[in-house]
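Exam review. A common question shows you a sequence with its structure tokens and asks you to describe the fold in words. Practice with the pair below. Do the first one on your own.
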Amino acid sequence: MPKARGRPGHNKGFLRRELLQLKVSAKAAQLEGGRNGGKGETLVSDDDLTSEVLSHCSSTSENASVPEEGNETIDEQVVQEKAEEKLKQCIDNTMDKSAKARQKALESLKLAFSSKILSAFLVERSVSLTDSLERCLKKGKGEEQALAAAVTTLLCIQLGSCQEAEDVFKTLKSILINIITDKSASLTARHSCADALGTCCYIAADEAEDLAACLACLESVFSASYIKGDGTVPSHNSQIHVLHCSALLSWSLLVTICPPSKIQRFLEIHMSKLPGLLCSDNVSLRIAAGEVIALLFELARKSDQDYFYEDTGQLCEKLKALATDCNKYRAKVDRRKQRSIFRDVLHSIEHNELLRDIFELGPPLVMDAATIKANKISRFEKHQYNSAVFKARTKARNKVRDKRADIL
């Protein structure tokens, strides 16, 4: 049985958006940094850890300029050893009896793992770190579980496709699934675990059964946002929407490493339901649904060039509406982001030659660089136009202004 992660050949179009999830966890350092936890006697501050971990990154360039500046030579090995000692202390602190101390240690590890590649260091300590993360996920609550899941994600990214990563995934897979499906668990923890399950499975899953279990778990979560049988739209709060969005994106990432037979089954089950998510009140869920629809179309065409979706016309109408959405009750930033993404989603579906031929839309609307440049307005012409508009607007306003009101 080939490894599930050994099929990352679909790497174009909207698949790039799914693969970029592997980089999302690198933003983790921006979330919890700067907060104090525990008593602090044996813990390392984020600022100190960052400076120690990152200082040797620029040591080469510093050494090159040392003779010119007259400074003492920096011993890179000493800096490296100090940074590793601090990381070892953080790993030990994840087993502390104090929940605040464990949380502070996880925050420091999260920051360090997202700041510097530490693969060699982590390979030697993957077993002890996995044991610590397992304990934090089982015994911890809320924020501690969320941090442990985030560190798990970064750990698998650091280790890459190796036996140690497989061991981490096999040990923590069932725990992550339990938290995701536990409705009494913290929504923050469930959301973080959904991200971790998708990324870690993509990197380290070795058995088809593991992949199937992760897909089923994530599917059971986001399907709760599907339109009900009676046609009503489920009502969820913003945190539930975030969870469903994470589960949907993680699921779509794993779909890219499934065999064609599985993809065909997913098309049969989900292509009639996913368009309903485009009507969600949550902009992130609408965008995620659009990206997943585009991804499924791309994967379907890869395995079957004659793939045809019966409701393509209705789907394109929904996508056009979202690509030109100007409803004032939605935030301006959300509208701008939504329109930009759904223009791409719509193009990915309309530019299929078979579909355009079926709907008599003509050839794909693709313009080369020369055509785009020829149709572009010059800066001078744009300036002249703006000046004329400004003058016309000023004249119109002057007519209705009562200058005598300034005296009052």
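Now try the second one, then compare your answer with the model answer below.
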Amino acid sequence: MAESEATQIGLDIFSEFLEVAIHSILYNRELYPAGVFERRKKYNVPVQICVHPEVNQYITQVVNGISEFNSSNQLEKVALVVCNKELQPLEKFILEINKPDMAQTQQTDRYLYQLEQSLRSFLLKINMADSLLTPLPADCTWTVHATTSESAAAKRFDTNLENNFPWLEASEKETTMDNASILPLKSTTSPYINMQMYVEESKECKDS
């Protein structure tokens, strides 16, 4: 398989996975009422997908924007950040993105099967993480942070004027989490995707 073809497969799979992961986190951390979610299956795992049109539109726009960073190989991290009503970060579900190892033997069917099993494990870990994290207070909000190069960020801010989607530089308050503990969830390496997922949690802010 050509490297360009493997790269495009990896980009498509990552975008698809990211969208499902965001929905799963929103459901498991009870950021919206259970009644606005619908049960479906992805990678043979039961998942909950939000059916509220405005939430869906926002998630789609976020994933599309992140996909553009990723397609230019300038995406380093994606974080779904949960904040309290004072906008202090309480939790960050973080995906670290690294360049896939194209030197691995590319037996397409075998790797895609293994990759699907790995992504299945990611979703199962997200579902399980809720039992390992401190309950969230009421009135939490959430946002998505993308870590990329300065040049890619500047280009994206300019594009905001064209598509009216507000990618903005995060403030220090929005990104700083004091005395955070880390909960590793899952990692995977293949010629298509190389990423790891973990949660940073500030119990100090949750208790305050």
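Model answer, second protein: The two ends are 54 Å apart (CA to CA). The longest helix spans residues 3-28. Full marks require stating both points clearly.
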